[in-house]
Each structure stands twice: as structure tokens, then as C-alpha cells.
């Protein structure tokens, strides 16, 4: 299946990205366009998914955007790689759990190419690593499915400002921290975007 690949160099405003994804969802639903993978970075923003709680906002002064994706509150900003997609599950298996597992597999495989071992957690959605004897989140996943079309996506922390997470309880999880690839291993991650595209495209064809 043909998948359109879109890569944005300049940071994208969150609201503009969501508007684009929802327009693409309608185009796919109307059989006017096909699947999309979109790689980008966001301007600084906090977003709240459909299951967030008010007590997870530790700093009430932050700019919080409520969104229709699944999950709780997370932070987006420069130095973080965002992979958005709009994927028609009607042309694949109509299995949301399997699709999330596919996303997890894509991230794990991509980080492994940089010799970083990561793993999923059945209790807490996202991708995790062992860092200094503690488990920390390296990638957040937030997905919505409408008319069997999956959209939104995931974010991998490369070199973003981790202090920003102190304003929230990230993804509603109190007992686990957040880390970045640069904090784990100081190396060049410029090719990560292309590697994610290759792995996600491959896994979507299986």
C-alpha cells in the first residue's frame, strides 16, 4: 500500500497539526487520499488526552491544549521527534491493540539501531528504558481511532528540555521518570526520523 511521507523542517504549531490530521482523516474516509506518515517537531506545548485528570497539572500557569487523542498530559517541544500518521485500519486488520503493538515495535526497533534497548509496558502505554537503576519513559504514544482510521501518533525524546515535565505528572504516572536519547547516550540522532519512517512503513505492510 502506498503511504505518503511528509517531513517538516520548521516546528509546527500543535493546533495546525491536528487540523491537518483531521482533514486528512476525512479525505481517507471519503477515499480521496491514502495513508500518511508525517515527521515533525512542535513548538512548546502541553497537551491533555481524553483520560487526563486536573490534579495531573502541577503548574496551573502552563498553556494546556485539550485534545481528542487517547492518553493523559504530555509535553511537546524542540528536540523531540514527533511521528504523526493517518492510517486506514479497514485496509488492514481491524485490531487496535495489534496496531498499538506495531507502533511500540517500530519505536523499539528504531532505537535499537542506535544500540539503545527499550521496551513496552502492558500497564503503561509508551516506550521505556532502564536508566540509572530506574525505569524512565523515552517515547509517548497517543492514538485516536475514528471510523477505523487511526491517527495522532508518538513522540520520541531526543534532546528536549526535560525540566518541562516538572509542570505535570507525565502521562499520569507518578513512580516513573522521563529521559531523552542524549541523556542515555550522547551520539548523533539525525537519521532517527528516516529510520522510523522505514520501520513504520515496513511494519504496516506485515
Tell me what you see in this structure.
- The chain is of the alpha/beta class.
- The chain has a single domain, classed as 2-Layer Sandwich (BirA Bifunctional Protein, domain 2).
- 25% of the residues lie in helices and 30% in strands.
- The protein has helices at residues 14-29, 96-112, 181-184, 192-205; strands at 3-7, 35-40, 45-48, 64-66, 73-76, 80-88, 119-120, 127-131, 134-146, 149-157, 177-178.
- Strands 1, 2, 6, 7, 8, 9, 10 and 11 form an 8-stranded mixed sheet that branches. Strands 4-3-5 form a 3-stranded mixed sheet, with no helix packed on it.
- Strand 7 (119-120) and strand 8 form a beta hairpin.
- Helix 2 (96-112) packs antiparallel against helix 4.
- The longest helix has 17 residues, at 96-112.
- The model has no long low-confidence stretch (mean pLDDT 94).
Amino acid at each position: 500500500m502506498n503511504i505518503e511521507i511528509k517531513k517538516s523542517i520548521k516546528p509546527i504549531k500543535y493546533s495546525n497539526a491536528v487540523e491537518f490530521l483531521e482533514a486528512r482523516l476525512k479525505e481517507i474516509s471519503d477515499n480521496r487520499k491514502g495513508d500518511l506518515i508525517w515527521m515533525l517537531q512542535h513548538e512548546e506545548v502541553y497537551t491533555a488526552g481524553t483520560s487526563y485528570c486536573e490534579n495531573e497539572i502541577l503548574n496551573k500557569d502552563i498553556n494546556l491544549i485539550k485534545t481528542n487523542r487517547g492518553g493523559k498530559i504530555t509535553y511537546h517541544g524542540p528536540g523531540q521527534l514527533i511521528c504523526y500518521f493517518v492510517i486506514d485500519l479497514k485496509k488492514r486488520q481491524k485490531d487496535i491493540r495489534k496496531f498499538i503493538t506495531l507502533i511500540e515495535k517500530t519505536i523499539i526497533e528504531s532505537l535499537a539501531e542506535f544500540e539503545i534497548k527499550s521496551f513496552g509496558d502492558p500497564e503503561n502505554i509508551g516506550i521505556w528504558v532502564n536508566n540509572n537503576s530506574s525505569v524512565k519513559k523515552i517515547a509517548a504514544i497517543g492514538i485516536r481511532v475514528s471510523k477505523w482510521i487511526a491517527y495522532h501518533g508518538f513522540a520520541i525524546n531526543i534532546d528536549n528540555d526535560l525540566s518541562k515535565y516538572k509542570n505535570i505528572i507525565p502521562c499520569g504516572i507518578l513512580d516513573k521518570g522521563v529521559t531523552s536519547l542524549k541523556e542515555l547516550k550522547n551520539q548523533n540522532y539525525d537519521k532517527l526520523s528516516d529510520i522510523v519512517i522505514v520501520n513504520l512503513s515496513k511494519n504496516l505492510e506485515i
